[in-house]
Amino acid sequence: MTIKLNNQVNLHIIPTTKYKTVRIVVRFATPLDATFSSKRSLLASLMETNSLNFPDQVALSKKLADLYGAGFYVSVNRTGNEHYLSIGLNVINDNIAPNGVSILEDSVEFLKEIIFNPNIKDGKFDEETFNREKENLIIDIESIFDDKQTYASMSLQNLFFSDSKNQKTPSFGDIEQIKSETPKSIADYYNYMIQHDKIDILVSGDVEEGYVEKCFKNFGFSDREKLDTELFYKQPFKNIIQQKSEVLPVMQSKLNIGYHCDVYYHDDMYFPLMVFNGLFGGFPHSKLFLNVREKHSLAYYASSSIDPFRGFLTVQTGIDSSNRERVLRLVNEQLKDMTTGEFPDDLLEQTKKMLINQYLLSSDNQRAVVEQQYLFSNVPYADLSQDEWIKKMNAVTREDVQDVATTINLQAVYFMEGGK
Predict the structure, then answer these.
(1) Residue 81 and residue 68: Cα distance in Å, rounded?
(2) CATH numeric code, 2-216
(3) How far is CA 185 from CA 44, 125, 139, 177, 182, in A?
(4) What is the pLDDT of residues 209-249, one digit of tens each?
(5) Residue ranges per domain, the chain?
(6) pTM of the predicted structure, to 2 decimals
(7) Would you say residue 80 has pLDDT above 90?
(8) To pair with 103 at 20 to 30 A between CA atoms, which of 10, 257, 267, 338?
(9) Is the separation of the CB atoms in 187 and 121 below 8 Å?
(10) The Peptidase M16 C-terminal domain covers which part of the protein (predicted)?
């Protein structure tokens, strides 16, 4: 059930008796912008740790304890051409709250405090809090360099999206941009976000729809203009392969490969794409795992993943540096085999069964259900019943998978060579 609270402010209620908790997510959406990503990342850190009436983490933690140990977070991420700042709260259901207390009402009041009363005085964030959170965020981002697998993934993304600053900048922004922000600049951006972002409020749990609507009816958002952005980022294929190599102090070298893929979330070939990825590198029975890792012993790990909102397929491998060319050649041979249908029928059927099991398991995960409902609000044609989804998956043929494989083309190669 979706209720329009204001222009571009919608309340989505997902009643279910599966869970003992109620999950509430307030999501701010805006067109992806590298500078805004940095501002929003810092703003999320500030909103997660304090507010005007909860000026420090001790006061905030005490309030969450009063809500019977509610789980609270503020995060940033992106999908395609959109950037999200999400404020989430997990609380116990009113049905199991003691003394007839309405946890939902108290939770809504808490969220109103966090959203509409940030720790801003005289037009700027509290300076001491701001400086601490800014420093902590920079340290967190710098620590990503220590996780070489994540660093390799980011480096490949930087190559693949070399023509788009917005796409190659991570969702948490850029350190140099974050360093330039001030208590006033982030307060100014907060006011802009509150007035302009598209707002979706999602509530999942054993709740009564009319009561939820009553709780959020006068939440506080005003009307806003419709977002002028296309969710899917469709980058044209380029004949030039982007390549980068660097030597870093790691024992295990990493070869990450990026492919251009002209198939997107829930278009006609989306289900074949999922099956292709499962067969290619998504599961332990995939060609990358069985051939690159097991048969030829050329990789410590080898897998693939898809980003169906940006037409981006990646292969991640951990290898000995001397095997770089052999691994790259062997990976591309596996892709070629997919185009000619060189995969057995039993593995095709096993892949479809495993994808169906994943789908069914996700329907039991409250967080996944909420995220799925949000996607449906943006991509209505993806809202399939369970039977329809399973039917589409089972209908995928060998020829469909081959057709998908032919649309996938090498676009970027990043190599991290281990060294002193």
Answers:
(1) 37
(2) 3.30.830.10
(3) 14, 9, 21, 12, 5
(4) 999 999 999 899 999 999 888 999 999 999 999 999 999 98
(5) 2-216, 242-418
(6) 0.93
(7) yes
(8) 10
(9) no
(10) 182-355
| Distance of alpha carbon 320 from alpha carbon 60, whole angstroms | 48
Burial letters 357-394, b for 16+ CB under 10 A, else e: eebeeeeeebeebbbbbbbbebbeeeeeeeeebbeebe
Tokens read off for 85: 């700042």
The 10s digit of each residue's pLDDT in 176-219 is 999 999 999 999 999 999 999 999 999 999 999 999 999 999 89
> Could you tell me the strand order of the sheet in which 2-6 lies?
2-6, 9-15, 198-205, 21-31, 82-92, 71-79
Q: How far is CA 189 from CA 42, 43, 90, 136, in A?
A: 11, 9, 27, 20
Question: Could you give the 3-state DSSP secondary structure of residue 218?
Answer: coil
Please give the average per-residue pLDDT across 373-402, as a whole number: 95
Give the separation between CA 47 and CA 112, rounded to whole angstroms. Answer: 12
Number of CB atoms found within 10 A of residue 296's CB = 13
Q: How many CB atoms lie within 10 A of CB 134?
A: 20
The domain 242-418: what is its CATH number? 3.30.830.10
Cβ within 8 Å of residue 109, ≥6 positions away: none
Buried b / exposed e along 228-257 (16+ C-beta atoms within 10 A) = eeebbbebeeeeeebeeeeeeebebbbbbb
Give me the amino acid identity at 91.
Answer: V
Task: Provide the token pair at 284.
Answer: 């332990």
SS (H, E, C) 363-380: CCCHHHHHHHHHHHHHCH
Domains 2-216 and 242-418 alike in fold? yes
